[in-house]
UniProtKB/TrEMBL annotation:
It comes from the Bacteria. One of its GO terms (molecular function) is acyl-CoA dehydrogenase activity. This is Acyl-CoA reductase. Keywords: NADP. It comes from Fluviicola chungangensis. The keyword Glycoprotein does not apply.
């Protein structure tokens, strides 16, 4: 299969998703979907929250818009030119996480754009959206049926593995997949480094960095580094857009649980009835909690942050990722800072 054909299919996918996220009604055949296919996907998205309460319609749409951003044709062509296209395709097993809707899409993209085949093992928490998008791709170019498979049982006959999961999953990954070339990804989190000059608009965007997808992604900010004397009220005042979170029953349960634990153990925290701020040296905060820490010298802080490389996915701040962009990675923002495409090319 030629690279050009793969890019064309991704372009069509972006067109179809864009038509869906931009219109409540079927916009016509130019979107690449029939009216029944369009309405069927509407029903699928609306039903997701019933099957996985974390996958609200808003979060599904947000994730789909993120996919559109990744496969914009011009940037995808430029991106693909940086990597050789395999003359002898390898079969890459993709063990995908399920914390966010189709969170493994970037890995699928990297596998195909380098000319390899993807054997997908989907998370039980996230099967329906990936299956439907893959079905569309097969329909638009039947050749892709030989390049993308979804395994519903044990996976076999693969040349390499990219596996994403929790820290506790790593031992299982090692047991099952260490005999082949592999990329194993475990828990990471993200932080924000503030310098005190942030505008209210930037802090408002920081709220999204913390709580998009309920804060369940590795690119969500869970720890704030603040200059000494920073007014914490500015965080609460500019995170008001996140008030909707507490209306979600599963998020609310996490909030109630963590608040109760802190109260019972007389652990100090600040609270606005939506989320909590807790001063803590750790960077991995539980759901509904943001840790913070004050610093005196930025140079010393940055030296400390550099030592956290293996635990961090993203850093937000004036010298880092812009506020509001933590959950909008570009196509070149590889997970764990490892160039997935270069790694795939090394398998040839």
């Amino acid at each position: 299969m030629e690279k050009k054909a793969i890019i064309e299919v991704f372009g069509q996918l972006g067109k179809a998703i864009s038509a869906f996220t931009s219109n409540e009604e079927w916009p016509g055949y130019e979107c690449g979907l029939t009216e029944e296919e369009f309405q069927s996907f509407q029903r699928l998205i609306n039903k997701e929250v019933q099957l996985n309460p974390w996958f609200t319609r808003g979060n599904c749409i947000k994730a789909l818009n993120g996919i559109i951003h990744l496969i914009e044709k011009e940037s995808l062509e430029k991106f693909s030119d940086s990597y050789p296209f395999a003359s002898k395709p390898k079969t890459i097993a993709l063990i995908m996480a399920g914390n966010l809707p189709f969170v493994g899409f970037h890995d699928l993209l990297c596998v195909l754009i380098t000319g390899n085949r993807a054997l997908c093992k989907l998370s039980s928490s996230d099967t329906r959206i990936p299956m439907k998008l893959i079905e569309w791709m097969h329909e638009w170019n039947p050749e892709l049926k030989d390049y993308i498979w979804v395994s519903l049982g044990p996976i076999r006959n693969y040349d390499a593995v990219i596996a994403t999961g929790s820290n506790s999953s790593i031992a299982q990954f090692e047991a099952y997949f260490s005999h082949v070339p592999h990329l194993f990804r475990k828990n990471r989190t993200s932080i924000a480094v503030l310098d005190g000059s942030e505008t209210n608009e930037e802090l408002n965007k920081l709220g999204s960095d913390c709580f998009d997808f309920f804060g369940m992604g590795c690119r969500n900010v869970s720890k704030l580094y603040l200059p000494a004397g920073f007014d914490l009220n500015r965080i609460f005042e500019n995170f008001l857009d996140q008030a909707y979170l507490i209306q979600h029953h599963k998020y609310g349960n996490n909030y109630d649980y963590n608040r109760t634990v802190y109260l019972m153990n007389q652990i100090p925290f600040l609270d606005n009835n939506v989320f909590m701020l807790k001063e803590d040296k750790d960077i991995h905060a539980p759901l509904s909690v943001i840790y913070y820490e004050f610093y005196e010298e930025k140079a010393l802080l940055l030296s400390e942050v550099a030592g956290m490389k293996e635990e961090l996915q993203a850093i937000v701040g004036h010298e880092f990722i812009p506020f509001g962009k933590a959950q909008a990675p570009d196509i070149t923002d590889f997970a764990d800072g490892i160039d997935t495409c270069a790694w795939l090319n090394s398998l040839a």
